[in-house]
Design goal:
Layout lengths: L5 H40 L6 E2 L2 E2 H32 L2 H7 L4 H19 L2 H7 L12 H22 L6 H14 L12 H8 L2 H14 L3 H30 L2
Antiparallel strand pairs: 1-2
Helix pairs in contact: 1-2, 1-4, 1-5, 2-4, 2-5, 2-6, 2-9, 4-6, 4-10, 6-9, 6-10, 9-10
Membrane topology: Multi-pass membrane protein
Keywords: Antibiotic resistance, Cell membrane, Membrane, Transmembrane, Transmembrane helix, Transport
GO biological process, one term: response to antibiotic
């Protein structure tokens, strides 16, 4: 069993922070403005035809769903593309491993950094929705922590994917065949209960669905037993992706 030390994680975070200070404006613009466009386009577009879903205004329903979608996009894409570029082109990871850093520490540090940023950026739709009539609640304070586990899992998923694809162009298969279906079948823009049986079952194993449910419950009223189940699903997903990401990156970088 390899030891896990925090010093390498802190060192990698300092490296990420130095890069972030140079590029924070462009990263923040894309990460915050895009989900806001989704919220306004669907909330006011479909919202003009669908006033409410259940007990929720459609704009509020979409706002809570887009939080999870924002977490998906702001974690899986950095996990895929940044990891591939740093490993295959820039050889940044080779430089890290030349220091007293092991692969599992490298993967953990990178994924935690992605998740930390994503959990902050993903709250933008809620902030915007507050200005359009969403009632504030204390549960909103829990949203960044809930979203963190989804972002951690998908950041690790992206890193694992970057270790198995033969070229950077192969990410098109992952985006079209995996990310897009997860995005569409998660209860973000319409209730999962309205889907056919097979799609409802598929949604239940979709980590994004569990995050969307957690966020909605945090905003509109917590449901402790159900929420523990949703949170447990996200933790299991993140743990499984960590194992796969570490194995995949170790095979690429060392074996």
């Amino acid at each position: 069993m390899r030891r896990f030390e925090m010093a390498p994680v802190k060192g990698i975070w300092r490296h990420e922070l130095a890069l972030y200070k140079r590029y924070w404006m462009t990263q923040s613009f894309a990460s915050m403005v895009e989900p806001t466009f989704y919220l306004l386009a669907f909330g006011y577009g479909f919202g003009s035809m669908v006033a409410a879903i259940g007990h929720y205004r459609y704009l509020d329903f979409v706002a809570t769903g887009v939080v999870g979608t924002a977490a998906l996009f702001t974690s899986v894409f950095p996990g895929m593309f940044n990891s591939y570029i740093r490993r295959a082109f820039q050889h940044t990871y080779d430089a890290f491993l030349a220091a007293p850093v092991d692969v599992h520490e490298l993967v953990t540090a990178e994924a935690l950094w992605i998740a930390a940023k994503s959990s902050v950026y993903s709250c933008t739709p809620l902030v915007v929705a507050l200005f359009f009539g969403l009632d504030p609640s204390f549960g909103m304070l829990l949203v960044p922590f809930m979203v963190f586990f989804l972002a951690l899992g998908f950041g690790l998923f992206g890193m694992w994917t970057s270790s198995v694809v033969p070229s950077i162009n192969s990410f098109d298969y992952v985006i079209t065949g995996v990310v897009t279906p997860l995005f569409l079948v998660a209860g973000t823009f319409f209730p999962v209960d309205a889907l056919p049986d097979w799609a409802r079952y598929a949604a239940r194993v979709n980590p994004l669905y569990h995050c969307v449910e957690l966020v909605r419950h945090a905003v509109f009223g917590l449901r402790p037993l159900a929420d523990l189940g949703h949170l447990g699903a996200l933790v299991v997903f993140a743990a499984l992706m960590w194992i796969l990401a570490v194995r995949g990156m170790r095979r690429r970088l060392i074996d």
